[in-house]
Amino acid sequence: MMGAGEAGGAVTLVTVAPERATPRRAHWFRQPALIAGLVIILVIIALAIAAPLLTSYNPIAQNLNDTLQGPSARHLLGTDQLGRDVFTRLLYGARVDLKVGFIAVLFPFVLGTVLGSLAGYFGGWVELVVMRLVDIVVAFPFYVLLIALVFVLGPGESSIYIAITIVGWVSYARLVRAEILVAKRQEYVLAAKSGGLSSLRIMGRHLLPNVISQAIIYAMSDIVQDILAIVTLGYFGLGIPPPTAEWGSMINEGQNFLTTHWELATIPGLAVVIVGLGLSLIGDGLADLLRPGQS
Amino acid sequence: MSFVARRLLQLVPVAVGVTIIVFFMIHLIPGDPARTILGIHATPQAIAELHREWGLNRPLVSQYWLFLDRLLHGNLGQSLIYGVPASSLIWSHLPATLWLIVYATVLAIVISVPLAMLAASKRNGVRDQIVRAVPLFGLGMPPFWVGFLLIDAFAVHWRIFPVSGYGTGIGGHLLYLFLPSLTVAIALAPVVIRSLRASMLSVLGADYVTTARSKGVPGSRLFIRHVLRNAVIPAITVLGINIGFLIGGTVIIENVFAIPGVGQLMINSIFQRDFPVVQGVTLVFAVLVVLINLLTDTTYALLDPRVRFDR
Which of A282, B3, B43, B274 is 20 to 30 A from residue B88's alpha carbon, by CA? Predict the structure, then answer.
């Protein structure tokens, strides 16, 4: 979306002649948004991995003689109410939030893509059942069902994965079904069908590679949503249990010191915003790369 | 009117599915739900009582029938903490939530429409680029964190707005709910700005705009009379689609600002392990989403006859 310098004429040309799939070969290194996003995310991942090298503190070790210190040479971002080094907790928190965010997006991605392709390809009662299921899940507000599910399953990492899968697959199913509905009328699919290929092979080898890009682009913003969900669950005490360093619980603990130490709640939130920015840029860059001519 | 009838008919499987999910929530609890809910100090009598009340000894299908039968009689179960019907607890918390939803929707429109107009007025111009950068930052902001920042700035530092609460009377509500509604609106704005900008750009390319232009209609008048009118309908649809997101946002924000709404009731009930209330709130929120979607669809069909004949 960002910085796509497309002319109005090119858009009509592509829609009129969809056979010419890639008018000009798009190169990933010519996408400034994609590059910027990748740099942001890779830097954060590198910082998270290198955490033990960058700080000598332990993220959960308390030091009650050293509580609520402002930023200094000894503690780059100060210490929290239990004397833990904020910079250290931020780095180790990145490990938790990024890991859970990236894993959490996989299950709904796979489940939604499979159900969406089946619905789109076979139609009939398969489609009816899948789309009714979608209707039912979207009837619940995202956070309401998520919080309720994590509550009944009990707080913790696996509950987060299960809950996000139950709530999150519907977007992928809708997206992929819509794409398949269009793609299955294309000539290459009709050719594969008349060639006598099995449905499984047509779906896996011919349809999926052509429709998956939409799902991948969506997955980028979905990771942001998942990280926000994890952080929000952490705020409600339903996320990763303490004392593990996690951005959501850091914000939550920091809110008690908003008037005296505003940075405690602000800094982990900024970390989330930066991760969100990086992933959104990657998503926009991928969109330009994989769907040339559209913005 | 057959559109409305068809739309209502489509709701039947959704309604059944929603009740099944809410019903099954107790069976997702690891172990014996009654024992888990009542805690380790519960007496065997109390556990047996809950078993009897929820019919936990019966087969699943008959448990579901029992649940559905009560539901159709307006019975969402008894609160385990307060000993009153969950429905009356929810009913008394509903006004604050509805206030917040409406207020946040209005603020989201007030924020998004001018920004989208600014962006669409010159495609790929500087203003467009700036407005398009808003979602990049906005989508990654945890709503409760935005709430803290707003409290810190406008309530603690400058003391313009109250820190928390709901206020009394319409004026009080408008004052107390301003920051919470603004927080929800900020969370919603990136999505609305994005689609509003896209729909304004497509309206700008429409034949009737070209006609109006060639007739010499001045730019500002053209934008308000021809473009804005036709672009706002899609914006309302976008808000309708995102109603689940909006309502989910109110759950979080009510807890940040201590607003006595249904969302706060939900989180408090979670901390008190008051299961019937959590179940009831989940159901009521789903009903709210379904009703608002029905309302948007119907309004849309009344405004635009083409919708009625589609599908």
Answer: B43
